[in-house]
Amino acid sequence: MRVLITGAAGFLGSHLCDYLISQGHSVIGMDNFITGSPENIAHLAGNPNFSFIKHDVSEYIFVPQKVDAVMHFASPASPNPASPFGYPSLPIQTMKAGALGTHNTLGVAKQFGARFLLASTSEIYGDPLEHPQKESYWGHADPIGYRSVYDEAKRFAEALTMAYHRYHNIDTRIVRIFNTYGPRMRLDDGRVVPNFINQALKKEPLTVYGDGMQTRSFCYVADLIEGIYKLLMSDEHLPVNIGNPSEISILDFAIEINGLTGNPAGIVFKKDKRLSDDPQRRQPDITRAKTILNWEPHTNLQDGLASTIAYFKQKINI
Ligand code: NAD
Ligand code: UDP
After folding, report:
1. pTM higher than 0.85 for the full model?
2. Residues with beta carbon inside 6 Å of ligand 1?
3. Shortest CA distance to 281 belongs to which of 317, 305, 314, 245?
């Protein structure tokens, strides 16, 4: 297949490019580098199965060749510690990538009769009242909270994807991605994994927001990409959660990272501006991924963190 991947220079998009090429497909990457980096795809330069278009997906998309699949991953996805609101970093751009970007990428799929895969998120469940989260749960999201620009953009994107499926017969897929980590995350993107590893490698205390009792379930990137590929190759049109169901509190996660890095500086508890909107518990129910895709994650947290720590060590020259 020839596949258009938007957000190709980002964390997940760049791993997706590598994986698809390794499976014998050719990839057209698209990105405007708003949060991604050319470094993430530099190794693909000169590869005959890879080409790149620098473009903002919220503007009309022109693709020079027929594509067989479109994977829409372009969206800012992380908080920005420097922003007065903390989360998310690029509010209007986030809404435009989720709304206009999804419309434009669905348009490309319609034009070529290509299959379409939307990168959605566990954030569509908001601060969930159901635990773990199944795809059938409609969520508990604040439409006007600070996170709403991300949550509602993705909820709109899911609705638009289903509308193109139902009314234009587009062959669509929706993946709801849970917290994923691994090499190529941006060191300063504000998410908990780069924050903690960066602090630990500099022998600084880890900043745990609130009491650290909020939970997340972290999936290693290689596992996630394999699940997404299986979904792309399946015939499933309804949303599928892809993530690692192994749940951990942020406090235990900090302790784990300090242990793995031998950081003696410990932990500081911080009242962060993000806390009012911070989901308290998050864990995917992956029954659908297991039964429909025959997929489940294999990498345990220690192994995944070891390779992520090695990547950041090399990045910051420690
Ligand atoms: P990332 O910031 O590393 O990658 C996003 C990429 O999209 C960047 O390269 C950025 O430059 C590009 N981009 C953003 N807006 C664009 C625009 N208008 N036009 C063109 N390119 C644009 O983030 P990521 O973690 O790789 O996330 C990728 C996708 O996966 C996002 O859609 C995100 O919502 C989704 N997701 C990620 C996670 C996770 O844990 N990493 C969880 C849930 C959902
Ligand atoms: N968090 C933290 N310290 C940090 C960064 C994040 O305690 O330095 C917490 C944050 O409040 C949230 C969790 O870690 O409860 C995960 O945050 P992240 O931004 O990685 O992802 P999301 O909140 O979108 O799941």
Report:
1. yes
2. 6-7, 9-13, 31-36, 56-58, 73-77, 93, 97, 101, 119, 121, 177, 179-180
3. 245
